Amino acid sequence: MPAKAPPPGPQTEKTLRQLGRQIRAHRKGLKVSTISLAEAAGISRMTLNRIEKGESSVTIGAYMNVILALGLKLSLDGSTESPSRPGLHLDSKIALAKYL
Could you tell me the residue range of the domain that residue 30 belongs to? Predict the structure, then answer.
């Protein structure tokens, strides 16, 4: 049986809600219906609605299908890293995970 995914943290939930709002705003700006976008992305209209709400239970693949169907691209900027030591936060999380 596959391992259960860890619950999303508050920052993850906030980021997904922001992403969902941006996706919805872009779709509406293009005057594209939820049905049309869902079909273009190869997902159900319900899944698209969940993406636009920023639900964490939707797969990253479904999010990416919608982003690409809208002609957008996702980028990572690394702005959350410590300027004095890049990756410090990640190093700490990895070290902590070894002891859990």
Answer: 10-73
Whole-structure pTM value: 0.74
- pLDDT tens digits along 39-56: 999 999 999 999 999 999
Residue 38 forms part of a structural domain:
yes
Quote the pLDDT of residue 7. Answer: 87
Residue type, 29: G
Integer Cα distance of 55 and 17 in angstroms:
7
Q: Does 24 reside within a domain?
A: yes
Residues (pLDDT < 70) of the chain are: 1, 79-100
d(CA 97, CA 92): 9
Number of domains comprising the chain: 1
> How far is 3 from 7, CA to CA, in rounded Å?
12
Tokens representing 17? 């809600």
- Asked whether residue 1 is domain-assigned, the answer is no
